[in-house]
Amino acid sequence: MAGIFAPRLLEGRAVLITGGSSGINRRIAERFAAHGAKIAVVGRDGDRAAAAAAALIAAGGEAVGISADVRDMASLETACTEATDRFGPLDIVVAGAAGNFVAPALGMSSNGFRTVVDIDLVGTFNTLRAAHAHLRKPGSAVLAISAVQAQMPTAAQAHVCAAKAGVEMLMRTLAVEWASDGIRSLAIAPGPVDGTEGMRRLAPGGQDHLARMLAGIPSGRQAGLDEIADLALFLVSGAADYINGTVIHIDGGFSNLGSRDFGALLTDAHRSAAAVEPQLA
Ligand code: COA
Q: CA geometry: angle at 270 spanning 268 and 272, to 5°?
């Protein structure tokens, strides 16, 4: 629905996006670039970040790829400085880097749990903490990518559920602390999104698996990447100027039905994978 927005809605805005090399974050980067924003694509793998930036440039945008791991505060501080030197003060930051794997709590080590919390929750804090000094004040927005797991306790997702719940409370708290700087703090909580690495991991069993998952979603389908990007565009635009400290679900009603069937699905997927290749469980 990109056509419903005024053209060049983000003309000249400086944007930094973590996890921007693929999936939801990449589509957000593409959408923002198409609306005139200058994009710093931050990724753990510098080559992939550079490739994503090159694609944005090839499509007529302005972009740079920067290598940083959101678990490493120093690398994020360097990334923010590099982005600001290139594009000026940051108008928008999207904290999108995330990690996930399917395993029951008893099938993950303390380090496995901590790894996801480190990437999803601490990584979001690190990104926004590092970016704060570089944000335009007033007039900027920071956006975290949460997930329905933040609200739905889901079997085989203890690490993600805990981490994303933390992300949502972090964003609500930053809204309280940073509103006086003129910074809006927001989050999007998608359910399943078609064509993402997350879906490849959560629904590895082909069409049967997918059909079982979709049966638990009132809208009967996954989100498209463009739908997530459009919500992000709306939220960082002036049209959402009075929305602050808010988490918006974009899940086709998924979170209204609860997570028991979804958790059973993931548990079955984990059992099948373990039967092929034994893991920790
Ligand atoms: N089941 C149980 N434990 C697992 C696991 C699985 N499927 N995959 C990883 N782990 C554990 C590892 O065993 C390790 O714990 P240990 O040291 O006690 O053995 C711990 O998690 C860290 O794994 P490692 O591979 O060293 O971490 P990493 O930093 O290289 O990778 C992940 C992080 C695990 C999140 C990895 O899946 C990743 O890089 N994901 C990025 C992409 C992604 O997840 N996208 C989906 C977003 S929704």
A: 70
Tell me 6's DSSP state: P
Pocket test for ligand 1, best of 45, 100, 101, 277 (most atoms within 8 A of CB): 101
Tell which atom from ligand 1 comes closest to the C-alpha of 107: 2
Tell me the per-residue pLDDT of 94-143, one tens digit each, with 9 for 90 and over. Answer: 999 999 999 999 999 999 999 999 999 999 999 999 999 999 999 999 99
The β-bridge partners of 190 are 250
Q: What is the DSSP string of 105-126?
A: GGGS-HHHHHHHHIIIIIHHHH
pTM for the whole structure: 0.95
What domains can be seen in the chain, in order of their start residue? Answer: 11-273 (3.40.50.720)
Cβ contacts of 199 within 8 Å, gap of 6 or more: 192, 193, 222
